[in-house]
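Entry for the shared binder. Reason: the reviewer on the internal report wants the predicted structure included alongside the sequence.
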Amino acid sequence: MNGCAARLILIAVFSCAGVFAQGHWQLAWSDEFNGAAGTLPDPSKWTYDLGAGGWGNGELETYTNSTRNVYQDGRGNLVIHVEKEGDGYTSARLKTKGLFSFTYGKVEARIQIPRGQGIWPAFWMLGANIDQVNWPQSGEIDIMENIGKEPSIVHGTIHGPGYSGGESIGGSDQLNSGDFAGDFHVYAAIWGRDQIQFLVDDRPYFTVTPSNIPAGKEWVYHLPFFLLLNVAVGGASSWPGAPDATTVFPQDMRVDYVRVYQQPRRLFHRQ
């Protein structure tokens, strides 16, 4: 989720079969968030980024692992609960780093996003080698990002060496009516060796290949990646910008499930 709005490019959208044949997915990993109400998600699957400081984006929140900010609701959902506390904000940023990573497949989550100016929910992935090579050499795949001032738009984006931040490569999907916060939607990416396709509710809207990155730059999406879920507040100048008088707190992001599918012969990488 580093950086600001992606540089949009026009690119032909291929069917799901253009990445992998339909009907050949095998569930490799999932969390259905069926734990007891008020409990943290499974610690064998999720850990946390903690603290404040902007996270490279000028964000305003402090991330915690408190059940005040992250919990299962007892109805099959994970909740990331964003609070305004004094002059600041608290939220949560979950990750599977060190617990689960994988190379290639279909990854999806059914999410109801929060709403409001300055609210920045995301479902995304980072290269598992980030501690060794740093960002953006590690690569980043943003499966879903939304900024509250664009309630009917979500973005799918990649960041890599020489095409990160404001020079990242992405596309967007827009609802014909209503907003994404009004209901659950399934956000997904199908990731192959030379192609990443972004989908909303099983409908492809953007595809990127090595031919779309700047000449001479590296396609770094061939190693294990781990998963992240978070809600940021403010950051990245005007993308999304800070909350204002119209922003209502608290805000919740609800996640029904996160699932990773692979082809039967593709073994995922567990750390």
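Summary line for the report: The CA atoms of residues 37 and 74 lie 4 Å apart.
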